[in-house]
Amino acid sequence: MKILFLTRLFYPHVGGVEKHVLELSKILLKKGHRVTVITTKHDDLLSYRDTVHGINIFRFKQPKIKYFGLLYTWYWLLQNKSLIKESDVIHMHDVFIWYLPFRLLLPNKKVYTTFHGQWGKYPISLNDIVQKKLATKFSTGNICIGDYIQKNYGLKADIISYGATKLAKKFVSKKKNLVVYVGRLDIDISLPLFLKMLKRYHDSNHGNGIKVIFCGGGVLSKECENYGEVLGFTDPTPYYEKAKFCFASGYLTILEALVHKCLVFVVYKNPLQKDYYTLTPFNKFIVIASNPDDLFKKFKYYSKNQKLTEKRIEDGYNWVKTQTWEKMASSYLKLWNLQKI
């Protein structure tokens, strides 16, 4: 079958959605399907047409001008409508608005959507709600990455998923004083709350006993340097392997940390973020805090109680090792009614 994915950003750009589409595509290729991805040309050094891991990639330069960027996207898709017409499955990743005119022009064409959500932005904008409701109405089926999307956007999910990960290739001796943070170093997620906790930890004379590695980049990079080493966007695997603790934000980071046997700490700052973490099957395997003081107390507690820490780590690993990309691909094939193909 010919499968077409549309996503705003894709490999080699780093991010959760980008990795989701990449790993999913690899599995689908192994199953004998053909995969094409339409995405934006986020870097001028990239080619407009490319093939990566057998995935056909078509990129276009989207103008960063409100409304005009969307109009140009529609124009580009119209010029390349053969990609849509020849595809058996068309699947959007949070960009259903790109496809909206073609839903009207090609009413018999089945189209699907995955909602990855914007859990860092609160309150939820009216525009975001309207776009997701339109996508739900005009999609043949949908997948929600997280049950919080149903609750906070008022949507009905056909399938709910929480992402996937690869099994760890090896386990090495953990450094009990090493903490890794993986993700964007930005304000709209919970990083400022982690930094407040680290400040209190250092001020209480506990901080000299831990080392923090930040795998990521963003506007808070300089501030993060006050508490540890900032490596930028780099492969976090070597640090997952060595770290006993992980400060996480997104689902992908949480799953990757669990599969490398890290104890994961998260903290929320609004009701949306609270739902993001608590409405999950893995909430009992991670440590969820409601503010920096709560996080400080829980981090100190688990740092001292090794048996309880090891029990939670092992329980989390036993759950997450079943959350494979093969399982994720099966969910997509089920949505498309292609399980036996």
**Which structural class is indicated by helix and strand composition?**
alpha/beta
Helix content: 40-55%
Order of helices and strands: EHEEEHHEHEHEHEEHEHEHEHEHEHHH
Strand order of the largest sheet: 3-4-2-1-5-6-7-8
Give a quick account of the main beta sheet: strands, pairing sense, barrel closure.
Answer: 8 strands, mixed
Name of the CATH architecture of the largest domain = 3-Layer(aba) Sandwich
Plain-language structure description:
The protein has 341 residues and is an alpha/beta fold. It has two domains: 2-164 and 324-335, Glycogen Phosphorylase B (Rossmann fold); 175-320, Glycogen Phosphorylase B (Rossmann fold). It is built from 14 helices and 14 strands. The strands form two sheets. It has an eight-stranded mixed beta sheet, with helices on both faces. Strands 11-10-9-12-13-14 form a six-stranded parallel beta sheet, with helices on both faces. Strand 7, helix 6 and strand 8 (159-161) form a beta-alpha-beta unit. Helix 2 (68-79) packs across helix 4 (96-105), helix 4 packs parallel to helix 5 and helix 7 crosses helix 12 (292-304). The protein starts with a strand and ends in a 6-residue tail after the last helix. One of its GO terms (molecular function) is glycosyltransferase activity. InterPro entries: Glyco_trans_4-like_N, Glycosyltransferase_grp1. Residues 14-145 form the Glycosyltransferase subfamily 4-like N-terminal domain. It comes from Candidatus Woesebacteria bacterium RIFCSPLOWO2_01_FULL_39_10. This is Glycosyltransferase subfamily 4-like N-terminal domain-containing protein.
